[in-house]
Amino acid sequence: MVERLMCTISYDGTNYSGYQIQPNGRTVQEELESALTKMHKGQHVRVTASGRTDAGVHAWGQVIHFDSPLTIPTENWKKALNTLLPNDVYVCNVKKVADSFHARFDVKEKEYRYFIMNRKEIDIFNRDHTLHVKQPLDIEVMNEACSLLEGEHDFSSFCAANTGVKGDKIRTIYHASCYQEEDQIVFVCKGSGFLYNMVRIIVGTLIEIGTGSLTPSHMKQVLDAKDRVAAGKTAPPQGLFLWRVVYNEF
To answer: Which of 78, 97, 116 lies at the terminal end of a domain, its last residue?
Structure first.
């Protein structure tokens, strides 16, 4: 009997060419499928994720599913996989789910967080997990700009020019805000779905607003333009985390 299992996983994307398998470069999906193939004595097991993350991007709560004929208690699945996986990928939990469950198509909400170290001196120990911005950032005006992102909009201005997205670029943002902990600023964004590089382009634009190069109202002008050239630079990948994926069933 084949069962479908759902896993929540965390990974440090520093040394990966992204989540999805590629012809060249180490990927998170490759490591997961390699571990599962060993557990299935050489039989390849394909995993499906809630979505891909790019090179250098991390995940705190990525979700995958796969099918298996093995009858193993869920806690043992977790132990076995973590024994076989490298130390920068970790299975947080495993659940048995209905055969109809799909890690990608059943997503209700995704949450991303972007971490900015805002101080003069760089922190070399966090350089792979935060973006260092030495200019002072005004979190109040950044939050004012964030409020303009909430709701349903055409986010064409916040989509990479080389995207392969088909159809419209309308997405719904349920929540967007920044908060500060000492010298770290965290951007939190929850939505129905995200375009290629969308969060990183939003962050790049917010940084320009936070430094005073742009006003908060400029965020609406960028949205209305529906043109990538209207937005700020794409922030680098290392500060970005896929934080949480929400499903109706859970």
So the answer is: 97
